[in-house]
Design a protein that fits this description.
Largest sheet: 2 strands, parallel
Structural class: mainly alpha
Domain Zn(2)-C6 fungal-type: 47-76
Strand order of the largest sheet: 1-2
Keywords: DNA-binding, Nucleus, Transcription, Transcription regulation
GO molecular function: DNA binding; DNA-binding transcription factor activity, RNA polymerase II-specific; zinc ion binding
Protein name: Zn(2)-C6 fungal-type domain-containing protein
Order of helices and strands: HHEHHHHHEHHHHHHHHHHHEEHHHHHHH
Number of helices: 25
Distance between the termini: 43 Å
Number of strands: 4
């Protein structure tokens, strides 16, 4: 297999035979992580905090145990089953395991570093992490993630390692457990090493898993974001996944019809390009035509995936038109005309959709109801694309001098674009309750999901196109009204990526 070729459309990350690709691309992420000890699991005690600290037997009586009553202490309460699973990684146990790991031979170093050593083999944290990923994020990349998890025990791939790191990070965030987060970060770093090796060794047989692995790491960045400087870190991994996909395009390794995994990467890459001011790579914009989904063709019984690719072609082109406007490569009048044509193409797309795309608004509560979450995401991509088109119209109308504009047409189009943006924004806000509620897991599962990833990326894109303060204040109102207190945790995760 030949190495990656130089490609101007993927200048953000385009490895060649003369460099070590992932090593340089991911230096910034490795520097963020810190080496953490491996994690061991011992039999945990449900005893109260006082008895554990005094190392005496606790009889677990309520409202306080006999030992606390005898000593005149306030009983701190007993640990739940969740605490027993996630919070009993003591410092001394971790140090002992770390010391034993350092004595393994060099040949087995990586294997020992990433294996969970169970002193009491009743619980496997990595298996739980993979289940968390499957339950909460598996819909992003489809059924193949399950196949990779099933085969990952003997031959872990970058996809398996990446999704394990995301599951561990989700557990750590929910349970506020720094030890699990340490393990998640080590797993994350290991996934980057495996991605690097896959490119350097030109492992073509695993290129599909490398695409998935790089994309999955973007989810890790989003759920572990804790400050403004890291809120857009997910984009780096998405650009990397797009570069892998570009290699598949050049090698003719794509399927003959679009699949949801490829569509997800196309749209997310487009959002990342919009936020970072980059151009959508040409090979992505050529994919709809490759699958037979040209932007101006429609059928009443068209496959929804082909409809989604037609929408992507228009949306990606608009992102590149905005980039032209930013760099002043084209006259404003031409950009206005292109944006108006694109907005009309988007409206034609919406009116030509099959019946499966129909949604409705509930009579009570600000909420749209869709056939499933995927359709809700696609409709919000449509709304975002139209907001982008009308933003381009407004911005470039403002640049044109008055003599160049018919006064009546200018005022009409200007007012119409502002009204369109306001209406579409509200449409996005009242779509979010369905998305976030549909992916809510049972009480025993993690309140993190693919919807958080999509919602955050969508809102970060809108911050580039609308009033920042108003969006941060308004986006969550319909969801808070519909979901109430259940929404508090999810809102916190999203909000920390918007500031």
């Amino acid at each position: 297999m030949r190495p990656f070729a130089s490609c101007p459309e993927t200048e953000f990350w385009c490895p060649s035979s003369s460099v070590t690709p992932i090593a340089t691309f991911f230096d910034w992420t490795i520097s963020k992580t810190h080496t953490a000890p491996s994690m061991a699991f011992v039999r945990a005690s449900p005893a109260c905090g006082n008895c554990r600290s005094r190392r005496i037997k606790c009889n677990l009586l309520r409202p306080r145990c006999s030992q606390c009553a005898r000593a005149g202490l306030d009983c701190t309460g007993y640990r739940s089953q969740s605490d027993l699973l996630f919070r009993d990684q003591t410092k001394s146990t971790i140090r002992k395991l770390h010391a034993s790991s350092s004595r393994v031979t060099a040949a087995n170093k990586d294997a020992a570093c990433w294996s969970v050593v169970a002193m009491t083999p009743t619980f496997n944290i990595e298996e739980l992490a993979q289940k968390v990923f499957s339950d909460s994020f598996g819909g992003i990349l489809g059924d193949k993630c399950k196949l990779w998890m099933d085969s990952g025990a003997e031959h872990p791939s970058s996809a398996t390692i990446s999704l394990t790191s995301v599951g561990l990070a989700a557990l750590a965030v929910v349970h506020k457990d720094p030890d699990i987060m340490d393990l998640a970060r080590r797993k994350y770093t290991f996934a980057i090493r495996v991605l690097n090796k896959a490119i350097v060794a030109h492992q073509g047989s695993r290129i599909e898993q490398s695409i998935a692995g790089s994309f999955i790491l973007s989810i890790f960045e989003m759920i572990t974001c804790d400050n403004k400087s890291s809120s857009n870190a997910w984009q780096k991994h998405v650009h990397g996944a797009a570069a892998f996909l570009g290699y598949l395009c050049s090698a003719n390794g794509l399927p003959v019809s679009p699949v949801k995994e490829i569509i997800e990467i196309c749209y997310t890459t487009t959002l990342a390009c919009l936020i970072s001011g980059k151009t959508v790579p040409r090979f992505l914009l050529e994919l709809p035509g490759r699958f037979g989904a040209s932007s101006n063709a429609s059928q009443g019984d068209e496959d929804p995936l082909l409809s989604a690719m037609r929408l992507f072609a228009i949306m990606g082109t608009l992102v590149n038109i905005r980039d032209l406007a930013t760099q002043s490569f084209s006259p404003p009048s031409q950009l206005v005309e292109l944006a108006i044509q694109s907005d009309q193409a988007l409206q034609n797309w919406a009116t030509s959709l099959p019946a499966s795309w129909i949604y409705h608004e509930l009579p009570k509560g600000p909420q749209y109801i869709y056939q499933d979450v995927w359709y809700a995401r696609m409709w919000n991509h449509y709304r975002l694309a139209r907001i982008l088109a009308n933003r381009i119209i407004i911005d470039n109308f403002d640049i044109l001098s008055p003599p160049m504009l018919p006064v009546d047409n200018f005022k009409q189009q200007h007012d119409q674009s502002y009204e369109t943006i306001s209406t579409l924004l509200q449409g996005i806000y009242i779509s979010l309750p369905f998305m976030l509620n549909s992916e809510q897991m049972p009480a025993t599962s993690m309140p993190l999901s693919a919807a958080i990833f999509f919602t955050t990326a969508l809102l970060q894109s809108l911050l580039e196109l609308t009033d920042r303060a108003a969006l941060i204040q308004d986006w969550s109102s319909p969801t808070s009204e519909v979901l109430g207190e259940r929404f508090a945790f999810t809102k916190g995760i999203v909000m920390q990526n918007l500031h």
